[in-house]
Structures are given as structure tokens and as C-alpha cells.
Design goal:
disordered N terminus; Immunoglobulin-like; 7-stranded mixed beta sheet; 5-stranded antiparallel beta sheet; mainly beta
């Protein structure tokens, strides 16, 4: 009996609590009992530029974030049936249900469909959508923070306008060298705003392969956009290589705010260029004559030659040796590469450069072919040549790999440019070592090492040379390959002279360096006249045929403030020889002007050297221009 009485008492208490109107929100024993609470995603809906006869809709997201059911007592526009605004229903999947629910459960939400239909093109309408619910908070249009019961509605009319917008779906370019965008939208040149043409560039697609390109056709206007004429026509090549995948219809309509995808495929069956197009009629009045065009560009199976390396130096080869290097030919294109011929030039004696294979060959797409290049020097001297590769590459029908070889001595001086004397006491003396090295592949002969008497200040001169053999220069110094020799440069300070600088001239038989080799001696800490800097433009070039070669040294300069170039000295450092050993007889147009030229009289390598002098007659380090003359 006690237990039954207790249950009755508990039930009575629950009924009292639930039945009490003011206790919609309370905390009992740590638990929260909440009433219904209205929430919307916006308190203002705006419709801009809506065409007459083409009403637009907006969604109003209505939620119940309370703890009990929210009843929709009334959802209505204040203006009623005369208002251009109306409630069309609630979204149910992809459809609109005209029947509004009267109840929204806790945590649930609905999307109300609100429509605006202006009466004129100049309409400027305003109204209010009232949401009357059982939300316990006061419905106050001036304060919607607690109960958003009033939604402001605004809309404007506009003339009917279908507006085409085109958006490329792939933002990349074709491979070098043309780097053309694969998808490009051209705008009206008069306004630079309205799209008038779409260009699809499929680049290169190998036969048997395919590529798709897409662009999105959008209607940003306020009436349906109509487009007709989705049919491909041929401009160049085979029309069957192209296919229009979507849209499948010849005529389409795109609602305001809607879009359709344009997808075109290119699948070539054979090599060659293809060009197709589509001309579309639209109701977009901004387009000239209402026409929008699509152009399709493609090239099937074009070979692309890639040769590595572009120069083989053949360093460290001595007379009697035979050394083989390789040239790699890659076909990075989509078509078959046909190497129709190979030429070998150069070498002071015929047969010093040979290749294998010596005849033409083909390379499949993404394939590779190796060429063995063998150098077998038969005499001492410089051997320069080339391997010329002829192919069906449309961009590079001829590729040249230059060949070089130095079966000769090569001098190296350490230090390379100047000998520095640092912190020498006034009137004191010092010495520094200079090392001569033969880094070439034949004996190096040094016939003289001396200061230029005109470039060694003081009486007696402040700079001197020691450590040379007593019978030098009567008996020259001969350094075998990898051999070396050291001598000393001495300095005795002359207190009456500032800016001491001297010039050592080393006479030798190395064809790789200036002769004599110039080495400066400088007492660091006193201003010194720096040598000028010689420059030749261009520093190297390849000439096809026996055409005039022009060289410009006018950009040479002197780094000293107030100093300038006073004299130019041009000369040939190297001239080619033919197979019979006859040397080129080409001559320079001048030897002491800023610009010179010459006309080669045989194919091969020519090296022109320039030395410039400043106003103190100080020469620069020589610079060379390497000219390779092909037949």
C-alpha cells in the first residue's frame, strides 16, 4: 500500500510540473527541459534583377533548436495575394511540396521555398514574411535576436537577359615549345567581357590514344539560355577523330543559375594535324549575331627529338689512344622519329672521329637509340668536330653535337691572376711562390718568364723573379703532362712609389691560354691599376655554311673609375685544317677595332681571341669566341 501511494504521489508531481505554463525552461536535478525555439538562416531575402515572367525562388532554412515540438501556426506574406512575393511550399528532395508542415520536431529543420515575380522591369518591391509559432519568446520585429518571426523580403525587376559564361575545366598548357593553353576562352574584343569563342587544344595525342577536354556552359542571366547547333564540322583532317560526348542533344536550354557540361574527345587513327569546330546559335543578345563558336585543334603522332649531350669534350686522350663516348637520342614525341642521316665533321686527320651506327634509323615514340662516337687521335694538336643528326622532327630537323679534343699541352698557373704581397713593411721585402703546372696531354715548353720592363715600377724595379734555372731561358723549361715547377716573385718596397703593380709574362706553347700568360704582382694595401675586362659578343656560335661571322667587343670595360679601353687586339687562336692538312686562310677584317668580322673558307672550328688594353696599356685577360662552321 505504501508503494502504490508513492507512485501516485510521483505521478501527481510530474503532472503539476508539466502542466505549469511558466515552467517551460527549468533545471531540475542538473537536467535541462527546454521549450520550442525558432531559428532561421537569414532574416532577409533579396531577389535582384528578376525578369518579368521568369520568377525566381530562394530557400529559407527554418530550424527548431529547442527541446520540444515547434508548431507553425502561420507562414504568410503580409501583402497577401497582391504581393509579388509568395510561399510556394517546402523542399522535399528535388521537388517542392505545396503543403506546409504544421510541426517541426526538436532538432529538425525544413526549407521554405519563397518566390518573387515582379510585375514590371522597373519593379522595386518590399514585403515581410511572418512566421508565427509557439516559440515562447515575444515576436518583436524590432528585435529578432530571440524569436526571428519576421523575414524582410526585397526584390527588383529587370529586362529579360540570357547571359552565357564559359568556364574551362582544365587549366594547363601544352608542352614546350609552344606552351599553348589546352582550354582558352576568347572574349569580345570590343568590351572584353562576353565570351565569343572557346578554343580546345589537344596538343599531341598518339594514334590509338584519346584525350577529353571539358568546359562548363553557365547561364548567369535571368531567363533561360537557349543554345542550338551542337554538331561537329571538319576544318582540317579527319572529322571522325573528334567526338562530341555531351551534351547529347542538338538543342539545349539552361535555366538561370544553371549549367551544362561541354565534353569533346580526340582519338586519332593516324598521324597528322586535325582541326574541327562547332558553331552555336544562342539567345544571348551580348554575343555578335548571337553566335558562340568552339574550335578544336590537335596534332597526332608528332616526333620530338631529344639529344644528350650537346658536346663531348674527349678530355685526357693522348696520341695513340682510342676512346668511345655515347650520344643518346630520345623520341619524346608521339610519332615515329626517322633519323634520315648522320654526318661527322672535324679532326685534323680523316678518320679521327667515327660513329656507330653510321647510317640512319628509326626511334619509336618514347624510344631511345645510342650512337657510339670514337676518337682516335693520330697526331698532336687540337681536334674539333661535330656529329650532325638529320630527322623528321618538325621543330629541330637538324641537331648538332660538337666534339672537342686536346692532345696538346695546357698551362695552369697558381695563383691564377695575381700575386699579392700583404702587410710588407715600408722599405721591406717579401717573396711569394708561383707554381706552373701542365694539365694537358703533351709536353709543355716554357721559353721565358720575365716582368714587362714597362710595367715594373721603380729604379731598381720593385718586383723581381727568383728560383729559375741558371741556364734559363737558353734552355727552356719542359714540363711533362701532370708536371709542375715553382719559382718565386720578389717584392722590395720603394717608399717613394705608391700603387706598386707589375706584370709577369710567361711565354709557352699551350694553345689553350693567352701567350704570353699574364700574371700581375700587386702590393696589397696601395691602390693598383686593375686590368680591363675583355668581352666578346657572342661568346660562341654555330654557323651554317661559309657565311660572314660578326664579333663585337665594344662591351669590354675597365673597372677603374675614370679609366677606359684604349686599344683592341684581335687574333685567331685556332683555325681549322682540311683532311690534307691545309690550314684555313681566313683573315679578320681588322685587328684593333671594337668590331671585327671574317668569312670562313672551310667548315670546322675557329677560335678568335680578344685582348683589350686600358689607358695605361694594361692588357686584359684574353677571352675567346668559339665558332663552329657547319657545311
Amino acid at each position: 500500500m505504501r508503494r502504490v501511494s508513492a507512485f501516485k504521489l510521483l505521478g501527481t508531481l510530474i503532472l503539476v510540473v508539466l502542466g505549469s505554463g511558466p515552467l517551460l525552461n527549468c533545471e531540475c536535478g542538473g537536467e535541462h527541459f527546454a521549450g520550442p525555439q525558432l531559428e532561421v538562416d537569414t532574416t532577409a531575402l533579396k531577389f535582384d534583377d528578376v525578369a518579368v515572367g521568369y520568377p525566381q525562388t530562394r530557400l529559407l532554412h527554418v530550424s527548431n533548436i529547442g527541446g520540444s515540438g515547434l508548431t507553425l501556426d502561420s507562414v504568410a506574406v503580409q501583402g497577401g495575394a497582391t504581393s509579388p512575393f509568395s510561399v510556394k511550399g517546402v523542399m522535399a528532395g528535388q521537388d517542392v511540396d505545396p503543403l506546409l508542415p504544421g510541426f517541426v520536431g526538436p532538432g529538425a529543420a525544413i526549407d521554405l521555398v519563397i518566390e518573387y515575380a515582379p510585375a514590371s522591369e522597373t519593379a522595386d518591391d518590399h514585403d515581410t514574411l511572418d512566421l508565427l509559432t509557439n516559440d515562447p519568446d515575444e515576436c518583436n520585429p524590432m528585435d529578432l535576436s530571440r524569436n526571428p518571426c519576421a523575414i524582410a523580403l526585397a526584390g527588383t525587376g529587370a529586362p529579360p537577359n540570357a547571359e552565357l559564361e564559359v568556364v574551362c575545366q582544365e587549366d594547363v598548357t601544352c608542352p614546350a615549345p609552344n606552351d599553348t593553353p589546352v582550354c582558352q576562352v576568347m572574349l569580345d574584343p570590343q568590351t572584353n567581357t562576353h565570351p565569343v569563342r572557346l578554343s580546345f587544344n589537344f596538343c599531341e595525342v598518339a594514334a590509338g590514344y584519346s584525350r577529353q577536354l571539358q568546359a562548363l556552359l553557365k547561364n548567369t542571366g535571368n531567363i533561360p539560355l537557349t543554345m542550338s547547333g551542337f554538331e561537329l564540322f571538319s576544318i582540317v583532317g579527319d572529322l571522325t577523330d573528334f567526338g562530341l560526348l555531351e551534351p547529347a542533344e542538338n538543342d539545349i536550354g539552361i535555366q538561370p543559375g544553371g549549367d551544362r557540361m561541354l565534353t569533346v574527345v580526340y582519338a586519332p587513327e593516324a598521324e597528322g594535324a586535325d582541326n574541327s569546330g562547332i558553331d552555336l546559335a544562342t539567345n544571348d543578345d551580348d554575343l555578335p549575331s548571337g553566335e558562340f563558336s568552339v574550335r578544336l585543334l590537335a596534332f597526332s603522332a608528332e616526333p620530338d627529338i631529344d639529344v644528350h649531350p650537346d658536346h663531348i669534350p674527349f678530355e685526357g686522350v693522348t696520341q695513340g689512344q682510342s676512346v668511345t663516348e655515347q650520344i643518346t637520342i630520345n623520341n619524346t614525341g608521339s610519332g615515329t622519329l626517322d633519323v634520315s642521316g648522320l654526318e661527322v665533321t672535324g679532326g685534323s686527320i680523316a678518320g679521327e672521329f667515327t660513329i656507330d651506327p653510321a647510317d640512319g634509323f628509326t626511334v619509336a615514340s618514347m624510344g631511345q637509340q645510342m650512337i657510339d662516337v670514337t676518337y682516335h687521335p693520330q697526331d698532336v694538336g687540337q681536334d674539333d668536330g661535330s656529329v650532325i643528326i638529320h630527322s623528321n622532327d618538325p621543330d629541330e630537323p637538324e641537331v648538332t653535337v660538337t666534339l672537342g679534343a686536346d692532345v696538346r699541352p695546357d698551362i695552369e698557373v697558381n695563383p691564377q691572376d695575381w700575386v699579392e704581397f700583404i702587410d710588407v713593411a715600408m722599405g721591406g721585402s717579401a717573396s711569394a711562390d708561383v707554381i706552373l703546372l701542365n694539365v694537358g696531354y703533351a709536353d709543355l715548353t716554357i721559353t721565358e718568364i720575365a716582368f714587362d720592363p714597362d710595367l715594373n715600377p721603380g729604379d731598381p724595379p720593385v718586383f723581381g723573379i727568383g728560383g729559375l734555372p741558371s741556364d734559363f731561358p737558353a734552355n727552356p723549361l719542359v714540363l711533362a703532362p701532370a708536371g709542375s715547377y715553382s719559382f718565386q716573385v720578389t717584392f722590395t718596397d720603394n717608399t717613394s712609389i705608391e700603387n706598386e703593380i707589375g706584370q709577369i709574362e710567361i711565354t709557352h706553347d699551350s694553345p689553350n691560354d693567352s701567350n704570353p700568360y699574364i700574371l700581375l704582382a700587386v702590393n696589397k694595401g696601395t691602390p693598383a691599376n686593375l686590368p680591363p675586362v675583355a668581352k666578346i659578343d657572342p661568346p660562341s656560335q654555330t654557323v651554317q655554311g661559309l657565311n660572314q661571322v660578326n664579333l663585337d667587343g665594344s662591351t669590354s670595360f675597365d673597372p677603374d673609375a675614370g679609366d677606359s679601353i684604349s686599344r683592341y687586339q684581335w687574333s685567331f687562336l685556332f683555325l681549322p685544317q682540311d683532311a690534307q692538312g691545309t690550314q684555313s686562310q681566313s683573315t679578320l677584317s681588322a685587328s684593333d677595332t671594337p668590331q671585327v668580322s671574317f668569312i670562313p673558307d672551310m667548315p670546322g672550328a675557329y677560335i678568335v681571341r680578344l685582348v683589350v688594353y686600358d689607358s695605361y696599356n694594361t692588357p686584359s685577360q684574353p677571352v675567346d669566341s668559339n665558332i663552329s662552321v657547319n657545311p
